[in-house]
Amino acid sequence: MERLANDCFANASEMISANEALNKISSAASLIVGTETCSLPKAKNRHLAEDIIAPRNVPLFDNSAVDGFAFRYSSDQDQDTGEAPRIVFGQSTAGHPLAEAPPPDTVVKILTGALMPDGFDTVAMIEDVSFAGDNVILPPHLKLGANRRKAGEDVREGQVLLKRGSSLRAQELGYLASVGIDAVRVFKRLKVAVFSTGDELINPGEAIFTGSIYDSNRIILTTLLESYGCKVTDLGILRDERQTVRNALKGAAETHDLVITSGGVSMGEEDHVKTALSETGQLHFWRIAIKPGRPLALGQIGNTAFIGLPGNPIAALVCSLKFVRPLIGILSGWGIDPPLSFQAKADFTMKKKPGRTEWLRGRYTPAKDDVGIAEKYHTEGSGILSSAVWANGLIEIGDDVTYIENGDMVTFLPFSELMR
Ligand code: AMP
Ligand code: MG
Predict the structure, then answer these.
(1) Quick check: CB of 264 below 6 Å from ligand 1?
(2) Distance set, CA 68 to CA 138, 254, 306 (Å)
(3) Residue where one domain finishes, among candidates 149, 165, 197
(4) Is the CB of 362 under 6 A from ligand 1?
(5) Which range marks the domain in which residue 89 is found?
(6) CB 310 near ligand 1, within 6 Å
(7) Using CA atoms in the order 398, 399, 401, 406, what is the torsion angle rounded to 10 degrees?
(8) How far apart are the first and last CA of the chain?
(9) 255 assigned to some structural domain
(10) Domain assignment of residue 170, yes or no
(11) Mind listing the pLDDT tens digit for each residue in 245-300?
(12) pTM here?
């Protein structure tokens, strides 16, 4: 199976825009995972591999939405005067319906969720009735069908309940349970291997040496990938050595659907990922007109997709949110699923080079009776992780923009959307 169509990476040496890169990803990549059946508790946060057709109505029967008295509607209910007291014939509670059909001019005491008695169509709330001895006086101005939940008003038998690709959040799982479904076919998790590359890298907990830095990308990537539903293998740090990199890539590709590395994709002498990949598979090196994170390598090793992220942690993070997320969506069967964004008022001014998209680390604050404001972090370096810790999202500045004035509208992408 072709995971990434080759021709889509033609002219790789040219600078392409962020949108072109996204278009290339969506036309080059296709579904690669299989499917499996999961019980509902196991299916949480997975994605449906089939359309689900409702096997029955919800609610299954007409029932009461309130505690009160059920009755057969008569046009008298519309009058100001109300009507004569009615006899209470019996009661219907949740799980314990009335056994017999009540006479039409009586009322039946009913509790929320209880079956509507035969022929009865309307419920008066307990708070709204008055009593004459043991009899009940119904309030005026009730509409036919008031406080009654109709059979099938939520779900109709035979309708498409959920579409293939739907993500199974708490509410979708509840929806499936409500029609009695206890297991569904979902897409298998995408198997992703993650490496870091660099002779300077050490693991947190290890002793530092002169010139060493702690590997922060790997934990960023594995965490992010897990929240995207991937089955992640952490394959550690690769030394800057062509043979090592090549063997590791080859090995990982044999047992995974996607291999992701960070670092080693620039033009430096020690950037072996590129060379190793062109020896074991096909490399499609992209220079994307974006900031942060210009060099992004895409390719494949055999049938396994490969993505080489820039080494700087912020660049790796932003490229993951903007490019890896949609790639994973397509490979895993849930599609692009565009994250929600909204407009906010810039609380900064900035000059910008035209012809590239920039993502600033931003902090959105809602405003009372007005559009919320977006601040940007005070420094922009692509190695500055404190910016992302401070931020609650990204501010996207489009290709053509050259200047942002305080108060201009900008697009804000909350992390909560980009990280789901
Ligand atoms: P490279 O793309 O390998 O030239 O790396 C660019 C910058 O990112 C260098 O300053 C690296 O030290 C840094 N870097 C690369 N990988 C990581 C990592 N896993 N964690 C933190 N910083 C990294
Ligand atoms: Mg490096």
Answers:
(1) yes
(2) 10, 65, 63
(3) 149
(4) no
(5) 63-149
(6) yes
(7) 30
(8) 28
(9) yes
(10) yes
(11) 999 999 999 999 999 999 988 777 777 888 888 888 887 767 889 999 778 888 89
(12) 0.89
